[in-house]
Amino acid sequence: MKSKKRIYVKDIMKTSFGTIDRNTTIAEALLEMKRLKTSILVVDKRDKDDEYGLLLVSDIARQVLAKDRASSRVNTYEIMTKPTVCVDPNMDIRYCSRLMSTFNLMRVLVIKDKEIIGTVNPSALVLEGLTAIEASD
Prior knowledge:
Layout: H1 9-12, E1 18-20, H2 26-36, E2 40-43, E3 53-56, H3 57-65, H4 76-79, E4 86-87, H5 93-102, E5 108-112, E6 115-120, H6 122-136
Parallel strand pairs: 1-2, 4-5
Antiparallel strand pairs: 2-3, 5-6
């Protein structure tokens, strides 16, 4: 019986991502998202003992736009997700996919030695990971 090829999170993760400070206004965060052409920003830690946060466009839509709040008067820390789910770069993508599916996650951070080295979303798991597994069969 042939074993399936293993693809790891580190093989398919996105290594470029934007970071912002927790005190950044949503208006400033939106400008940064547009500049980077992304729908997610990592919210940096306050100090070494803190945790990373995530700011998604969907958070802004639900908590700012839908509630008719002024984006210049809302700070990132008010609506970000924190703490965020993190995975090891050596995790098999099948387990990462299960984790994301179980908890209905749209993004996880990839952490090595307490530092972010990348991000993963379901699209990358399928388009990069599953296609690599299928190609090896």
